[in-house]
Amino acid sequence: MRKVNLREKFVLFSGHWTPKIVGDLNGQQVKLVKFQGSFVRHHHDAEDELFLVIQGRFRMEFRDRAVALEEGEFLIVPRGVEHRPVADEEVWVLLFEPATTLNTGNTTGALTQATLDRL
Amino acid sequence: MRKVNLREKFVLFSGHWTPKIVGDLNGQQVKLVKFQGSFVRHHHDAEDELFLVIQGRFRMEFRDRAVALEEGEFLIVPRGVEHRPVADEEVWVLLFEPATTLNTGNTTGALTQATLDRL
Fold first, then answer.
1. What is the tens place of the pLDDT at every residue in B86-100?
2. Any residues with CB less than 8 A from the CB of A43 and at least 6 apart, and which?
3. pTM to 2 decimals?
4. Mutate to test the interface with B, among A4, A24, A26 (most CBs of B within 10 A)
5. Per residue in A3-29, pLDDT tens?
6. Which helix (H) or strand (E) holds A7?
7. Residue B50 and residue A5: Cβ atoms within 8 Å?
8. B6/A67 Cβ within 8 A
9. Which value does ipTM take for this structure?
10. Which terminus of chain A has fewer Cβ atoms in its 10 Å neighbourhood, N or C?
11. Given the DSSP bridges, would you call strands A28-38 and A49-55 parallel, antiparallel or unpaired?
């Protein structure tokens, strides 16, 4: 049982859109990810996803609107809801979601991360 | 679907050891709580618990050791592990745990919160 320092983990990697697992509990995982640019529009059939901004800012785009997220703010995107994160500058984000969650949801492509590293 | 600003939620309440629900996903909940002083020693039979420090510091005491947690650090306490949070000064903590989790686990007493408010 070891504590995790978020900042120390974030500085260990530099890639974008590559979530890293930093915790496991109750079938869920805590993941850290850096966003920059635009992700693919997707949804998750069976998983709700929480996005908490640790450093920076981004916006979550939906079909009909967008939500701007700042440091210390989180958003839960329910299963089935199409979404696309967009970051004008690099942002550090903590994810809480089921261990089964695929980053690109119902889509697969160049950004899909089928297996994730642990930090 | 609304974003949650952690600081804005924390300033809405002042009590200690009274978790407030601020998010629901996948049968889990995000709760905010302020600790000050010593809690009761307890464990959870079936739930792992995540503690993330948002402001301040505290220590998690176990039978044989303690883990000091600072801002931006989290600890996952696995089910079955006896623990007791202790805060010399007020600390703001985010919890991520199953919706079924009772704050005092296998014990009940003055600090037990059988039902939790939502913010």
1. 999 999 999 999 999
2. A79, A80, A81, A82, A83, A105, A106
3. 0.97
4. A26
5. 999 999 999 999 999 999 999 999 999
6. helix A6-10
7. no
8. no
9. 0.96
10. N
11. unpaired
